[in-house]
Amino acid sequence: MSYFLIFFSAAIVNNFVLSYFLGICPFVGVSKRVSSAVSMGMAVTFVMLITAVVTWLIYHLILIPFDVVILQYVSFILVIASLVQLVEMFIRKVSKPLYDTLGIFLPLITTNCAILGLALFSVLRDYSFLESVVFGLGAGAGFTLALVMMAGIREELELAPVPKYFQGAAITMIVAGGLALAFMGFAGMI
Amino acid sequence: MSSTLSLKTEFIKGIWKENPVMASLLGLCPTLAVTNAANNGLAMGLATTFVLLSSSLMISALRNFIPHQVRIAGYIVIIATFVTVADRFLAAYFPTISASLGPYIPLIVVNCLILGRQEAFSSRNGIGRSLLDSLGMGIGFILVLVVLGIIREILGSGSIFGVAILGDWFTPWMVMILPPGAFLTLGILIALANWYNDPSRSKERRAAS
Predict the structure, then answer these.
(1) Cβ of B145 under 8 Å from any chain A Cβ?
(2) Is B107 an 8 Å CB contact of chain A?
(3) N or C terminus of chain A with fewer C-beta within 10 Å?
(4) Average pLDDT rounded to a whole number, residues A127-140
(5) What would you measure as the largest C-alpha separation in chain A, in angstroms?
(6) Is residue A126 left, alpha or beta, with left meaning phi > 0 and alpha meaning psi from -120 to 50?
(7) Residues of chain A with C-beta less than 8 angstroms from the C-beta of B25
(8) Would the CB atoms of A174 and B187 count as touching at under 8 Å?
């Protein structure tokens, strides 16, 4: 039951994008088309899952036993950067079509704050190994959900008469505000 | 003469014309996340500026020694080191601010504003120019964070920098200090900046005067 709560809370109630403001850059940048939003969401979920596993292992098997928790940020970001590179090479080798769809989005994930945020939050909340894996899956699902919803709205928005000065980034922010308002309705559920 | 002039533009451009948040939409995560009060915005802006300045200094000094292929990894390690310094400093001397900013201080590591300036500017320019550029960008970032923080704090809690200024008659707009308020306020600010920068509007103004 508690695993379900962690998943649900990360995906819906405390959505990474709409209530923690993590991963706003791809949320604004890659949300013009639903198809690319789905690919980006998949790539991020995949990296989040691996990050959750690897950073948990590093924190509990290296940083704590050797008493070097001060190196937390440096080691996490290095691991994430090299992980993204590895995943990119692996996908290119194993599945060319998947690589072509995710292609340009993969390197961008390194500087996606949602990934580092995930590692930091699971340390902060003292999650067990399984809990942080579930947390990673939930956060990825929530990110994908927000991104795809946003892309759907923006596809419709192209046909809407947006006031001149609100075109582009401004209307995206306003729409995101509306989405965040809607997601606030879930707040009482947990 | 021309070199002093360009040094000045190097510094000024970050404040408005190439403002990291309003013009390039960089560093949006902390901008939206911590501006529910003016104090938090100021602290976040100062911490980010510190990291930006020190890593610019370091990277422009080392720019001829860092191999091109691994430069991004190198930059990230340098940035993460200074973020650790800022994080420990805040935790030791300003524990309340450190607690209210929480994980957003370590998240400065992945603030695209910092990595962006290193890649676009510090790795190609001398120490002096890089520091000026970073200072300008940092001030621009602080300005946006503080303005957002002030607007949201006045409307959402009826206070400014923690001091209540609106009387009992004012019902705080709770939504402004919650996530939706951040998106709405920034959206409106960007639209206002678009309106202010619109070339056709300034032509009209010149014609009218």
Answers:
(1) no
(2) yes
(3) N
(4) 92
(5) 60
(6) left
(7) 25, 28, 169
(8) yes
> Per residue in A33-91, pLDDT tens?
888 888 888 888 888 999 999 999 999 999 989 988 888 888 998 888 888 888 888 87
The answer to whether residue B102 neighbours chain A at the CB level (below 8 Å) is yes
Q: Do the Cβ atoms of B188 and A174 come within 8 Å?
A: yes
Cα–Cα distance between A43 and A103 in angstroms, integer? 10
Q: Which residues make Cβ contacts (< 8 Å) with residue A42, sequence separation at least 6?
A: A102, A144
For B144, the token pair is 């946006």
Report residue A122: phi and psi, to 5°: -75, -25
Indicate the domain borders of chain A: 16-189
Contact predicate B20/B141, CB 8 Å: yes
User: Which positions in chain B touch A169 (Cβ < 8 Å)?
Assistant: 25, 187, 190
Stated pTM of the model: 0.86
CA angle A177, A183, A189 (to 5 degrees): 155
**Interface touch B106/A184, C-beta < 8 Å:** no
In the numeric block, which tokens belong to residue A167?
């075109």
Q: Where are the alpha helices (DSSP H) in B20-126?
A: 28-33, 38-61, 71-93, 95-101, 112-117
B23 touching A (Cβ < 8 Å): no
Cα dihedral B130, B131, B132, B136 sign = positive
d(CA B47, CA B54) in angstroms, rounded, equals 11
Q: Kindly state whether B103 is in contact with chain A, defined as any CB-CB distance less than 8 angstroms.
A: yes
pLDDT at B83 over 90: yes
Cα–Cα dist B205/B209, whole Å: 6
Tokens of B68: 């091109």
User: Looking at residues A19-46, what average pLDDT do you find?
Assistant: 83
Domain map (residue ranges) of chain B:
2-204
How much is the pLDDT for A104?
65
pLDDT of residue A25 exceeding 80, the answer is: no
- Closest-CA residue of A relative to B198 is A165
